[in-house]
Amino acid sequence: MIEFLKNKSNSSNILIQTELKLMKKTSLIVAFFSILASIGNIFLEFKIEITIISFLIATVNYIIYKYCKNIIVVKSTLTFFAFLFFNLLWIHNFGSVGPALISSFFLIVFITKFYNGRSLVFLLLLFLVNITVFFYIDFQSNFYFGTYSTDEKRLIDLYMSFIITSTVIVLYVYNTKINYYSEVENARKSDSLKTAFLENISHELRTPLNAIIGLSGIIINKEISAEKKKYYSQIIIDNNNYLLSLFDNIIDASKIESNQLDFNISILSLKELFTDSKTYIEKELEHRSKHEIRVILDIPKHDTIITSDKYRISQVLNNLLSNAVKFTSFGQITLGFVVKDNFIECFVSDTGKGIKNEKYELIFKRFSRINDDSELGIRGTGMGLYISKRIIEIIGGEMFFDSEYGKGTKFTFTLPIKPIDVE
Q1: For residue 255, is pLDDT > 80?
Q2: What are the DSSP calls for 219-237, one per residue?
Q3: Which of 46, 259, 266, 361 qualifies as a cystine partner to 50, CB 3.0-4.6 A?
């Protein structure tokens, strides 16, 4: 049911990016230790070919780390050069007498980690054939690929290769484990949020539906007065509107998660947009019988024309205003904007009860509600601010807030659009 919030394509993209990041880290680790191996080869006075191979391994892996962005390119390139360098190392570094056999363990770990199914079977078979060919050559002719000038050099080279290979594998496995624990923790948090969402949404759906069903049955009764029918009808309409708003939020959250939220860019008047929002919130206050709250519009005298999505900006503004109405019992609600050098700063402030410091980190998290027990009667699913912030970020702006518990809250968002002033 809740998987509408994270569809398969989005989850797949996250996995791909995680795998790509791990591959690039692996490339950087291999590059670093290949340089160390090159220095060791120079110190041991090995053939120049061995040192060149080590430098080539370092160079290729660094290029992959620095410039490759596509996971298919990174995986294919790493695999091709891993096999190539393994063969070159075997041929030019004394075959099974040298460190190539030790280094092959990293190749096996790499293939097993990043490949599955037929690709994994194919590459493991290829590696097996590769090793079998080298074994046959070594078996038929001892020291076919040469040998060390001294036993001391062989011993140093083998131990150095063992230490480097072991270190690379340890770092690689450790990094994989860290990523695994991170994903488990993220999954745990996601499950907790989804559970909270289900609890909230079941309550938020049940309450208006019960009101609609119950009052619809009462209205049918011919004995009630016209005044009561009108009163109950208005409650039904309000609950219908609330359900529509709830479904819109669910759909928007789903589209945001799957990067499919629609935007219609057009020329709009900020003065007109904020004036309409003021009218909207004044009606909301009147409907909630909060006549003691004043609404103040704080905007420049001259109109400001911009190019953006009128509906989405209005959606964000009305979300912020609705929250202000929910949590303000007296005083005032102020909305407005200020034109800066290269962006427009919009704001909504209230004299409501404010937000406790320990609740700050929950403000923009989806499905999170910051209500105290005394406020459980206030409706909400914890999606409005999350949706609003993501809309502003997609547009290219930022959203932040400042609050003092017991005195009020001010939400601010920016629109990075150059305005055109109109007299």
Answers
A1: yes
A2: HH-TTS-HHHHHHHHHHHH
A3: 46
In tens, the pLDDT along 152-175 reads 888 888 888 888 888 878 877 887
Distance from C-alpha of 210 to C-alpha of 201, rounded to nearest angstrom: 14
**Total-model pTM:** 0.55
Residue 53: CB atoms within 10 Å: 22
* Helix, strand, coil percentages in the chain from 3-state DSSP, rounded to 5: 65, 10, 20
Q: What is the pLDDT of residues 199-248, one digit of tens each?
A: 667 766 777 788 888 888 888 876 778 888 888 888 888 788 778 877 88
Q: Give, as one character, the DSSP assignment of residue 373.
A: G
The predicted-structure confidence for 173-200, as pLDDT tens digits, reads as follows 887 788 778 777 777 776 776 676 666 6
415 DSSP β-pair partners? 344
CATH 3.30.110.30 at 266-422, yes or no: no
What's the rounded Cα separation, in Å, for the pair 150 and 278?
Answer: 88
pLDDT at 200: 67
8 A C-beta contact, residue 344 and residue 304: yes
pLDDT above 80 for 264: yes
377 phi/psi in degrees, rounded to 5: -75, -10
Q: How far is CA 360 from the centre of its chain?
A: 20
- 203: which 2 tokens? 């309550």
Rounded to 10 degrees, the C-alpha dihedral 28/30/33/35 comes to: -80
Per-domain residue ranges for the chain?
2-185, 266-422
* DSSP line for 308-363: E-HHHHHHHHHHHHHHHHHT--SEEEEEEEEE-SSSEEEEEEE-S----GGGGGGT
Q: How far is CA 404 from CA 233, 355, 359, 371, in A?
A: 39, 6, 12, 15
β-bridge partners, 404: 408
